[in-house]
Amino acid sequence: MAAIKPITGMLRRGLITDLSIALGLGLVFSNAFWYGFHVPRTNARDNYYKKLEEQRAARQGA
């Protein structure tokens, strides 16, 4: 009967590879969301309210 080779090294290597890929992709997509969607929308919102406040101040003569 032939002995079966242990697979512990393959399991550990696969786990490290899977975790590295998952963390890498997570960082890439989270940065894409943050700088591609969240920051521009936040800046647009802040500019909108700044413009409203300037208009309100101009109407009141302050």
UniProtKB/TrEMBL annotation:
It is found in: Mitochondrion inner membrane. GO terms for cellular component: mitochondrial inner membrane. The chain crosses the membrane at residues 15-37. Keywords: Membrane, Mitochondrion, Mitochondrion inner membrane, Oxidoreductase, Transmembrane, Transmembrane helix. It is a single-pass membrane protein. Component of the cytochrome c oxidase, the last enzyme in the mitochondrial electron transport chain which drives oxidative phosphorylation. Belongs to the fungal cytochrome c oxidase subunit 7a family. This is Cytochrome c oxidase subunit 9, mitochondrial.
